[in-house]
C-alpha cells in the first residue's frame, strides 16, 4: 500500500522555523506524482498549504503568504516543507499526500496520504 511517513514536527516559538519531511513508501517512483502538504488545525478541516507538480511547478495556499517553501527530491522519494515566520495559527497536524501528475485546483484532492506530524507554535 502506497503511503507517506512525515517527520519534523515540533514545538516552536512564534516567528520560528521548522522543516518538515515526508518519505514515500510503496511507490516505484515519485517522478510522475504531484506532492502536497496539508494542515489540519485542531477542530478544523484539513486544508492544502503547498503542492508541487511532477514537473516541479509549485503552488501555495492563501494562508502561506510566501512563508513556506515546498520542494522534492525524487531520487530519495522525499518531499520537504520549509516553514518560516511561524504563527500560532499554523499549529496543527501536517500531512503529506500525492496525486497523479498535476496538483489541480486548490484544495488539491490527493489519492495517497501519510498519518501526519504535529506542529505546535506557542510561546
Write a structural description.
- The chain is 0% helix and 50% strand.
- By secondary structure, the chain is an all-beta fold.
- The relative contact order is 0.32.
- The model has no long low-confidence stretch (mean pLDDT 95).
Total beta strands: 11
**Helical content band:** under 10%
Strand portion, in percent? over 45%
Q: Give the radius of gyration.
A: 13 Å
For the termini, the CA-CA separation is 39 Å
Give the topology string: H per helix, E per strand.
EEEEEEEEEEE
- What is the overall number of helices? 0
Main beta sheet: 7 strands, mixed
Overall form? globular
Quote the average pLDDT: 95
**Coarse structural class:** mainly beta
Topology of this structure?
Elements: E1 3-7, E2 11-12, E3 18-25, E4 33-40, E5 46-52, E6 58-60, E7 68-73, E8 78-83, E9 92-100, E10 112-113, E11 117-121
Parallel strand pairs: 2-11
Antiparallel strand pairs: 1-3, 3-8, 4-5, 4-9, 5-6, 7-8, 9-10, 9-11
Briefly summarize what is shown.
Strands 2, 4, 5, 6, 9, 10 and 11 form a seven-stranded mixed beta sheet that branches. Strands 1-3-8-7 form a four-stranded antiparallel beta sheet, with no helix packed on it. With 123 residues, it is mostly beta strands. The model has no long low-confidence stretch (mean pLDDT 95).
